[in-house]
Amino acid sequence: MTIVKDIEARGMHHCETTALGVLLRHEGLDLSEPMLFGLGSGLSFIYWDSKAMPFPFLGGRVKPFDLTRNLAARLGLTLLVEETTSQRKAWENVAAPIDAGQPVGLQLDSYHLEYFQSKTHFGGHVVAMYGYDEHDVYLVDTDQQGGAVRTSRASLAMARTERGPMTARNRSFTITLPERSPCWQDQIIPAIKHCADAFLTAPIANLGYRGIEKAAKQLPKWLLRADNPQQDLPQAALLMEKAGTGGALFRALYRDFLGECLQLVDDNNLRTGHKLYAEAATLWTDVATLITKAGDGGDVGHLEQARAILHDLSRIEKNAMQALHQLPAATPPRP
């Protein structure tokens, strides 16, 4: 058995921030999950639907692995990414750093992981690996999946080689801090402004605040769109609240990030953004509740109520991001 020493196998709400937390704590940098999410400019929105999809998808974050790339670039971290179509090389890419005492991040399809509670394909799942033996690998996943877990090497190989939406070719990665520990506090404002700019100037109408407005227009059709409304609508709501989002489609995480920033930065626009995202987080949970009720009872009236809330959310989040975009390039920290 080969195990990396001094691993704090702490599962958090979201898979990518959980893995980043494991890798960075091993390097000596311990940041909260909201801070990791915010510094990685992780918040977004997408309304995704096509004829090939069984049901529409509401997404609340940037594409898988973009958060990791953003965070590494912002903090000056050395991010070494390996991809390959060879299973032999894929194993070597994770075994070598672990043999050298360094944990590894993996992007894979959670469907094949033996401990995973929900057997649905999701190719953008991220875990941290910190050990292996002849039969199993030792991973850190989200708290709801068990935190410190293990799965067979065979199942891991299938998860890593699966092809489909959001999958990667046996992607693995390591993170190394620079010689001088990064002053992450200096990157708070750039991270917020980057996220706000992307949200406000999204190139297509199903992204950002315009995407929320599009979701509002489409939502009342969901009972007719669904093959099995009693299953499909509650499942969509569950994904918004429980599937690694931290609640409220990642808005609770971003609210908490902005709240932490207010302990470091004194700015009225930041206070406005925090207040509006606190309001948005509550409303997103209300939307999920109404979608569940619509599926359970078949009453389109619940979807009409949710539609009205989504109209409000499009405005609230646009106003929040406009305020955050107005943050000065450099704001002095609180005394």
Automatic annotation (TrEMBL):
Q: Which InterPro entries does the entry mention? A: BtrH_N (IPR026935), DUF4872 (IPR032369)
- Name all Butirosin biosynthesis protein H N-terminal domain ranges: 14-142
Residues annotated as domain DUF4872: 155-324
Q: Which Pfam families match?
A: BtrH_N (PF14399), DUF4872 (PF16169)
Please give the name of this protein.
Answer: Lantibiotic ABC transporter
Q: Which organism is it from?
A: Sphaerimonospora thailandensis
